[in-house]
Hints:
Helix content: 55-70%
Structural class: mainly alpha
Order of helices and strands: EHHEEHHHHH
Shape: globular
Low-confidence stretches: none
Largest sheet: 3 strands, mixed
Radius of gyration: 17 Å
Number of helices: 7
Amino acid sequence: xxxxxxxxxxxxLVVLTLKGHWLLPASLLAALVHECGHLLAARxxxxxxxxxxxxxxxxxxxxxxxxxxxKAELLIAAAGPLFSLLLxxxxxxxxxxxxxxxxxxxxxxxxxxxxxxxDFDGGRMLHACLAPHIRLQAADRCLTLTSYLCLLFxxxxxSCLLLRxxxxxxxxxxxxxxxxxxxxxxx
Length: 187
């Protein structure tokens, strides 16, 4: 399997390095566990992966050929958040600084990925559940609508946090970037 890393992902790693002592290794471990979940599910289902592309918004696995069924898509998409949730739950009773950082990273990663946004695991799961039961175009429109509404809600929520409490603008910038990627760069 080929692995490619974008310059924006490398920049993000530098930012994580500067933000805190445990943040980079905890985030890398959280991402590794998450992607191992996807890869283990794919391997169990007999799906080979051609490449992994890592960019600012996460990793994208590309299978060799098409996935055999929507059920396979659903199981592979669900495996990443499931592994993240299991690791996060396992680390709840641990109180060391690194364990807390990994726990918070994995739980945040899992919950964020479960949102029904296009290209997120939750979006892939929603599409895999809808597509066998309604027309493919209707499933695509439904996913576009849920993506738009989720990103709008997250952007407004993060903007309120930023204005009210002066919290980090990271979520606001991430939502705006995702919105631009999903809705403004379609060609």
